[in-house]
What does this fold into?
Amino acid sequence: MSHAFDSREFRNALGMFPTGVAVVTTRAGNGAFVGLTINSFSSLSLEPPLVLWSLNSRSPSAAVFERATHFAVNILCQDQVEISRCFASQVPNKFAGIEVDAGLGDVPLIRNCSAHVECRAHAQHAGGDHLLFIGHVERFAYDRSKRPLVYHGGRYCLSGDYL
It folds into this structure.
């Protein structure tokens, strides 16, 4: 039995899996900060320490990340919804008014996040209409007192009490 594949319904089904929200950042060759909101972040390996995330291959930022030697995954906390929205938008200067520190490879680290994962670019792979970026984790930090920002069913959710 053959059915037409409904991409919107597939996306709705995937939205039933709650994910954390992060902003991945790097520096362009001209020194400009580049960043975008992702929820496609995952650990890949502990030995060696590897993480991965994906980006639509048609994204205006794709070429910058393909050439980047380093990137950082800034795991957002609950009070950073507006940062998530900003980096998910087409605003020309997403870093305006955002406090950052310099990370490895001089990539921007967004202040007050739940965690930072700083990576050296390790590998890239095509995956359908996306690019998969694998990073070798060189440094990380986290703050257990900050609850993570969660996305589920097409909207932000506050993470509740833990069982």
Observations:
- The radius of gyration is 16 Å.
